[in-house]
Amino acid sequence: MKKSALLKIVSVLVSVIGFYLLINSPTLGDDAASEYLRVVMFGSMDTAGFHIMKQSFIDAYRLAGAILLGVGSFYAFRLFSKSDE
User: pTM value?
Assistant: First the structure.
């Protein structure tokens, strides 16, 4: 397999993972906050603190997804347009 084909596959894969994280950030953030509450806080936390923590997890997944989608898409478009020339 050529290096350019492998880079194309990796860039598309990074874009797909970024899109998945971006679309599913509310669910992933809610699951992560619930897991944190259950494991670290032993199931006890005030509602306002939990809401802030949950929103922070959602924002973190959204940011990671946006970065991966942006970087993967940039390199995918760059590599695919370079191969057309």
Answer: 0.85
